[in-house]
Write a structure and sequence with these properties.
The chain contains five helices and four strands. Helices cover about 50% and strands about 15% of the residues. The chain has a four-stranded mixed beta sheet, sandwiched between helices. It has a single domain, classed as Glutaredoxin (3-Layer(aba) Sandwich), CATH 3.40.30.10.
Length: about 100
């Protein structure tokens, strides 16, 4: 299984996945920490994937979406965005609505 296949499987078999630096319990950067806080504030269960565990995953997730930064949020297999996009969507209520529309909130 290639790293692309592994990531594809991860985002398609979990309702909400956050690729991040560190873990939900111990984020290793402010952007990842902020993303975890937003999801926790919304009460959304999610799978965290620590990109620092593997250089292959760290590069693979960037290649998978053609998005240069981490964290990256996926909902029902769809790439939503990084920390700044999450914050904007959270503040506007758009993220809560999206999660509700997807049946995961």
């Amino acid at each position: 299984m290639t790293i692309h296949d592994q990531i594809d499987n991860e985002v398609k078999t979990n309702n909400v996945v956050l690729y991040m630096k560190g873990t939900a319990d111990m984020p290793m950067c402010g952007f990842s920490g902020r993303s975890v806080q937003i999801l926790q504030q919304l009460g959304v269960p999610f799978k965290d994937v620590n990109v620092l565990d593997s250089a292959e995953i760290r590069q693979g997730i960037k290649d998978y979406t053609n998005w240069p930064t981490v964290p990256q949020l996926y909902v029902k297999g769809e790439f939503i965005g990084g920390a700044d996009i999450l914050m904007e969507m959270y503040q506007s209520g758009e993220l809560k609505q999206l999660l509700a529309d997807k049946g995961v909130a």
